[in-house]
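Case study 2.
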Amino acid sequence: MGFEIPEAAATTPAPLTITAPGPDEITDAVTQLLTAGKDPGTDKTVQALVTRAYLANLHGLTEALEAKRDQEVLAVFLDAVPGINNQLGEMFAADAATLERLKDIVGAVPLAYLEPDSMNLHAGKAALEIMDANKRISKVCAVWRLIHHMLPSLTENPYSKALVIGNPTFTQWTENRLRGANPEAWDLVLMGVKLSLATGVQEVAARFQSLEQAAVQYDAEALEAEKWGHGGQAARIAGNRAALDNLARNLAQANAD
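Prediction:
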């Protein structure tokens, strides 16, 4: 993707391992020493071979060495994350601006139906730019998920992709059924969602929490409307936020009168 990444963070060092001696190495060395009338127990070569054989078969040592290597690699990578994040953000912002700028040229045409060859020259060029920008944003999102250790599939938890690359309002979130969805950036633009790459999982969680709080308030307003009648139950069943807003204004006016 053209990012600048420190060499130490872009390469994986060889694993730390201890190779056990071959099956005949110790036997041959001991045999030669005994034949020569020497004590193999005091021989440095035999001692080294035996030590290697012991360490290579020591339970948990290989795993410990790999864990140590992974910790060192991760530490170097984490030092590079802020710089990578900044580059992700810059690429995302440029492509998000492109999508916003071109939406009025091609209209509300879903990504799957963008056909540059069947459009006029101006709209066809815009469609190609939209497709390229959307593709780059998808790559940015994939790298973002890798860096921030999200679950393998964002659709398997509340943190929809929509909350990684966008900041939808409660109405946009519910009406477009974005929870658990996997929308393209262009989809969100057509929904009117503001594209905004989250800085990390904390921001994604904060966006989700805000929507959950809005849902609690929505239910509370619906229950209040039901209690006072005025068609509140029907409005709640329909999930019509505008109707509830009207009910709230009517109730406020009735209380004032």
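The chain has a mean pLDDT of 84.
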